[in-house]
Amino acid sequence: MNDNTGRISRRDFGKVSAAAGFAALTARAARAETNVDTLRVGLIGCGGQGTNNITSFLQGNENVQVIALADTFEDRLNSCRERLEGHDNPQVAGQTNIDDAHCFVGLDAYQQLLETDVDVVLQATPPYATARHIEAIIDAGKHIFSEKPIAVDPVGVRRVMAAADKAEEQGLSFVAGTQRRHAIDYIETIKQIQDGAIGDIVAMRAHWRGGIPFALEHEEGWSDLEWRIRSWIPHNWTSGANIVEQHIHNIDVMNWVKGDHPTSVVASGGRAWLPDEDRYGDIWDNFSCEYEYADGTRMFSFSRWWPRDAAGGVFEEVMGSEGVSNCRDMAESGVDPYVQEQINLVKSIRNEGPYINEGRQVAESTLTAMMGRMSAYTGQRVSWEEALESDLSLDPGELDWDRDYPVPPVPSPAD
Ligand SMILES: NC(=O)c1ccc[n+]([C@@H]2O[C@H](COP(=O)([O-])OP(=O)(O)OC[C@H]3O[C@@H](n4cnc5c(N)ncnc54)[C@H](O)[C@@H]3O)[C@@H](O)[C@H]2O)c1
Predict the structure, then answer these.
(1) What is the mean pLDDT of residues 181-199?
(2) What is the domain extent for residue 77?
(3) How many angstroms is it from 99 CA to the middle of ligand 1?
(4) How many angstroms does the Cα of residue 106 sit away from the middle of ligand 1?
């Protein structure tokens, strides 16, 4: 039975998931057999994080090979390829086997990569393209690792939720770039918090206070679209703004602790210092949100991209009736979580570990961050259902090198 939000009730979910679970198990067993030998991986989005992710994938796993790369820009693709081929870790360089015919450049490069015989795809473009790419990767029957956030608007979130369900039906593994979920200190501490180690949860805090990663000048020879894509951070339609793009990490931990998403949020913020110039886009540079969960627990979230910020401004904190935790203080840290998440992905694909599908979870955390932005930009309290059902789309229409993508007005709660 669906409730009025379109979600399946918990009781019915058991029936659906039992049937879907059997189908998924069968599908996974079939896929595991096809992957007993070398697992072929491709990368979409060959920038800083994509290169790091593929390096972690190769470093953490054996009998894997990166065979294909896709990026809008040749220079980004080439520098990634050079870093992998010349890597000083022999396991990374030795498992790199990319030929020219498997290097794809342009706006449709991701589609060309999906036509190759890769088994698994790592997706690490800026967020504007992520939902579309996740959908295409799963439609192509490939296992997936996708960077967070998975979308910049609710329309994109719903696309990913549907794609994640499809992955489950097909037995495709789906790991998300919320790497704290693969960090042993977080895993152990959050388990203890949930078991009552600091008593009842009274309130929670999450901060991301840091500088703006970049806002590039328009270089000669770049079309307008090339500029927007290369300098994707300061635009709502390309990054989702700081709260969605980076603070999602901390918000995701809060949802994890609660085992749920918030029911509503009221938020404020503004554009305190970003110059009123095309180069600095239309994002706000600070957000303060009060989220409420179903049991009344409040979570205070604070995120900003300001210059000269104090160090140590990125954290999560849970205040309990019998103590306080930063969500990782009850256990030692272990393997680098960026490597561990790629190990866990491969184990899931090979049926050597639990099946992982983090698609819904990262979609919910993306929407949680997004509803904070929506509340701040409109001045309205936003409920989970309103965010989930919202038709808000930041898609600027077809991507075309010959078209301009003018910066929209900075959002105002007075509009
Ligand atoms: N999990 C983490 O800790 C972490 C850290 C950094 C970045 N990230 C995430 O990784 C993603 C990428 O960030 P980055 O820092 O690597 O940015 P980046 O600008 O260094 O790299 C993005 C790459 O994607 C390419 N690209 C853009 N649009 C594309 C398209 N349509 N098709 C193919 N390629 C395209 C760009 O040319 C560029 O090479 C973002 O979603 C970001 O949030 C996650």
Answers:
(1) 98
(2) 10-180+340-357
(3) 22
(4) 15
Sheet holding 64-71, edge to edge: 103-105, 64-71, 39-44, 120-123, 143-146, 174-176
Distance 88 CA to ligand 1 centre (A): 23
Mutation to probe ligand 1, out of 147, 345, 366 (largest number of atoms < 8 A from CB): 147
pLDDT tens, residue by residue, 88-99: 999 999 999 999
**Residue 245 alpha carbon, nearest atom of ligand 1:** 43
In this structure, what are the phi and psi dihedrals at residue 162, rounded to the nearest 5 degrees?
-65, -40
- Does residue 394 form part of some domain? no
The Cα-based distances of 77 to 51, 92, 168, 328, 345 in angstroms read 9, 17, 31, 36, 24
For residues 29 and 137, state if they share a domain. Answer: yes
Domain count for the chain, please give it: 2
Task: Give the tokens for residue 404.
Answer: 């301009």
Q: What digits encode the pLDDT tens for the residues 264-296? A: 999 999 999 999 999 999 999 999 999 999 999
Residue 275 lies in a domain: yes
H or E element: which one contains 37? Answer: none
| 398 found inside a domain | no
Q: What's the predicted TM-score (pTM) here?
A: 0.93
Ligand 1 pocket test: pick from 105, 125, 130, 132 the residue with the most ligand atoms within 8 Å of its Cβ: 125
Q: Looking at the structure, do residues 308 and 218 belong to the same domain, yes or no?
A: yes
The pLDDT tens digits for 84-132 are 999 999 999 999 999 999 999 999 999 999 999 999 999 999 999 999 9
Same domain, 171 and 277: no
How far apart are the CA of 283 and the centre of ligand 1, in A?
18
On whether both 162 and 226 belong to a single domain, the answer is no
From CA 35, how far away is CA 306, in angstroms rounded?
Answer: 46
Q: The dihedral of CA 302, 303, 304, 307: what is its sign? A: positive
Residue 22 inside a domain? The answer is yes
